[in-house]
Fold:
Amino acid sequence: MESFAKRVIDKVRQFGPLVVGLDPHFDSLPPFLLQRFMPCRTSLEGLAEAVFAFGAELLEVLSGEVGFIKIQLAFYEALGVPGMQVLSETLRLARSRGFLVILDGKRNDIASSATLYAQGYLSGIKVGNTVLPSFWDGDALTVNPYFGEDGLRPFFEEAYQSGKGLFVLARTSNPSAPFIQDEGQNKRVFEKVASLVDTMRKEFPEDSPISSFGIVVGATYSEDLRYLRELFPSLPFLIPGVGVQGGEIEKVRSAFLPGGLGALVNVSRDILFAYRKGGKEKGEDFAERALDQVRKYQKILRSIAP
Structure:
């Protein structure tokens, strides 16, 4: 079974390190889709259908342009059963079009609960000698490190056995992150998390210059990005925060290893809702505008990480 790390390397060499975050903010969806699927705005089912139509058109247009999609689970879970159905269909479409899919749910717990999160999203449900395939079957999952090593270990084990990947929250992109993540005397919390991931990934050897187990490091903290890359050359970085959150894409240069590997750069709203900056009033051209933004970011990233 080919590892997540090797699949990432193949996609980066083919398409570059850009990740498009599928975060379908309901109030930013193109008005023509909302009018089509939920004219009275009273139906979860209608909103879910609008979300699906939005994602499906983006996946069609971006196929062959980018290799990675990050799906923010909150927007689908908030819609209940209709949202879960739409999420399942969106995942099916993304896989059929060749994207590697990162599920952004920031999951964690301890013992059997952590194992079930990992099995449900990545590997498969084990019942006696039977293994039921993972319903969601993501290529990678974002994970919260708050429980420490015993909370992370089930995720590492299940991901490794199934050739999947993990991105553990280390230095997140939000403004109040330092309140907790900068705590510590000899070593700050975000450094300890990165060090723990680096130590644990050595237990799961791979024939690859980078690991399948990495960390989330926000573009909004570019000096920490540089610092962590110097300390942990084998960890892949998932880098959110570019665009609306204020991170500058030019400042992620230090995250890359020679050859342009080692980092995946996520952009969400600045791509998804580009139509709001000069597009058609009701957003009928949202996919074309998104494609224009993708090509702009791809050009910049090619100059940063050739």
Q: What stands out?
A: The chain has one domain: 4-304. The mean pLDDT is 94. The beta strands are 18-22, 68-72, 100-107, 124-127, 130-133, 140-143, 165-171, 213-217, 237-239, 263-267.
